């Protein structure tokens, strides 16, 4: 996989595409973040991307992100200033300027917003993230496994409200930030998990921005060659086509700041006569065939792709009649540890299921 | 009315009694705050009480308070450290130490908690407050009328969670702080409305601590002389006995961080055959006789006293069978301005009624 060293205006199309793919249905539409990043790059120049190994041990990394339900983010386009406002609030509390910007989430809007912030703040962006995909809650990052505190955490909205939180642990941080996000109208810009270069070298998932870019390039190249991207993605990413069919029902509700629900897919062609249920909380979390045959479980990645074009489909875009491929990818091995599964396994989300790796679940199909 | 210059352990009984009276049914049980203040005074010495006129114009006043539903406060006894934690968080943000502590609310728990904080922080307490009584929301203070911002505002809970809020206006501050309070388990310690001596001289209601102390002294002296305190309170405070009867029904629910509801009182003796409804949101806000004859309306004070002892009764203590006097007092004249009524008049609380002063409503009774 090719490692990237910078991000230009032109790169953003591939990054948004790759970000939508790793968004696993959630994380917000990267298109908004793409526009924000492109505007910021046009004004301030390209963004330097650095490997975490190149950072000083005492460098200060600050991750920035948007928090909230993707359905709300679509209606509430960020102005661009809020993320900088959150960054500056956190720097003020720390009494120190950031040396680099970081993505906590490699998927969706949060793969692109940090690029806009890095461009505007004229800071390098670290090639990595805390999830290797998108997840719905902010404690669900590799940093939590390594004992790094989400707080102090800064939040900002488009009205000019800001807030600095010092919660006692990362789950409490999520709970406080979530109710504030709802009060901020459903979406907020956040800066959190400040960490040193030394901490980041141990705790982050590396190479995520390069991965996103490569996925975007593959999808686009295959689309241009009139081939479905799923085959090459399977080969190059150890992925698998889990199911193909038509969306026949979507239940979706916004609840406690999240978009929760499930979608029903009736099989087409070689899947004719079979049914798959996708359950989601912002992101796709479970794929269940028939009564109770699990095909993929969080933290493994479940991506929904258009059956014709291979374009990633988010939970909020998905609706009746879409023809889709359900595509699965193994998660980062860090997530399969006990501490990883306690953060992002099926039981955390309230599903009565014991995690099994996607490779095991699909050995015979 | 006698002006006080200090608060000793022995004074706290009168202050808690007077605070319960001005709590107008809400503000939390001052007994908890009395114990906290007595412990702090025992450890650190008596509290100096100063007139606002004696402060330097550039002195920094920081009000501290407890926020939340009184019913929750009863179950969640503060440790004592949380209020200091909120104070220190706010000082850290301001980069300046407080020169004096201030009460935002003259009634209930919030008339006594600042005494504990002043003792512990070894700071003087200003003789005044922002309400002249208790009110349920934090923007409902005279400081709001004078353009003083509630933010930066610090919040702390007993688990060690803290937060600093910078909302764009005082109503937004209330809304954010309220959802955080609910997430903190229903009650939080707060420091907010930092202001200079010059601002305080213009904006605060003066003499509130002296008033509380004098009310407490009157009630206790009359109780000891086996006289009902209502008569002397009427004479000395321009108050009026609005109704006497027995509580026959109480509806109470905790909703959005508030204790809301209403109580029905059936008349006794000279009120026999008549019915009074008291509506409350933490505090008593409306007294309505029969179908729609208003007897008192927020911001005028509605206090519920035990028919025998004259002891103030809070909305959470009140229950079926209590024999009570409903006692009314005119509010501070500042509240009767248009800006005052827009903050705390009946329509703000969702009651379809135009404010009329208690003296007008009861001219003939």
Automatic annotation (TrEMBL), chains A, B:
Residues 11-166 form the S-Me-THD N-terminal domain. Gene3D superfamilies: CV3147-like, CV3147-like domain. InterPro entries: S-Me-THD-like_C, S-Me-THD_C_sf, S-Me-THD_N, S-Me-THD_N_sf. Residues 169-358 form the S-Me-THD-like C-terminal domain. It holds the Pfam family S-Me-THD_N. This is DUF917 domain-containing protein. It comes from Roseobacter cerasinus.
């Amino acid at each position: 996989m090719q490692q990237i060293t910078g991000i230009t205006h032109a790169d953003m199309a591939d990054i948004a595409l790759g970000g939508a793919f790793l968004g696993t249905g959630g994380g917000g539409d990267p298109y908004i973040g793409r526009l924000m990043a492109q505007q910021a790059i046009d004004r301030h120049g390209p963004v330097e991307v650095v490997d975490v190994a190149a950072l000083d041990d005492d460098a200060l990394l600050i991750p920035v992100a948007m928090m909230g339900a993707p359905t709300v983010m679509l209606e509430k386009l960020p102005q661009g200033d809020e993320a900088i406002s959150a960054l500056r609030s956190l720097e003020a509390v720390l009494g120190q300027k950031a040396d680099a910007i970081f993505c906590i989430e490699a998927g969706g809007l949060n793969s692109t917003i940090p690029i806009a912030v890095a461009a505007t703040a004229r800071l390098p962006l670290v090639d990595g993230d805390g999830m290797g995909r998108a997840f719905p809650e902010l404690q669900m990052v590799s940093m939590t496994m390594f004992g790094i505190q989400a707080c102090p955490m800064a939040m900002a909205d488009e009205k000019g409200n800001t807030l600095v939180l010092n919660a006692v642990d990362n789950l409490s941080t999520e709970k406080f930030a979530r109710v504030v996000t709802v009060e901020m109208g459903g979406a907020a810009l956040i800066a959190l998990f400040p960490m040193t270069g030394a901490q980041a070298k141990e705790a982050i998932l590396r190479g995520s921005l390069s991965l996103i870019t490569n996925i975007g390039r593959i999808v686009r190249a295959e689309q241009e060659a009139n081939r479905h991207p799923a085959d090459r993605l399977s080969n190059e990413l150890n992925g698998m086509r889990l199911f193909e069919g038509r969306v026949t029902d979507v239940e979706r509700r916004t609840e406690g700041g999240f978009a929760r629900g499930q979608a029903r897919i009736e099989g087409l062609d070689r899947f004719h006569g079979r049914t798959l249920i996708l359950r989601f909380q912002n992101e796709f979390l479970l794929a269940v065939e028939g009564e109770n045959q699990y095909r993929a479980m969080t933290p493994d990645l479940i991506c929904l792709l258009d059956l014709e074009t291979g374009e990633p489909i988010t939970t909020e875009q998905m609706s009746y009649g879409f023809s889709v491929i359900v595509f699965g990818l193994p998660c980062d091995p860090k997530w399969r540890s006990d501490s990883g599964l306690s953060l992002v396994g099926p039981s955390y989300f309230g599903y009565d299921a014991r995690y099994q790796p996607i490779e095991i679940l699909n050995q015979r199909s």
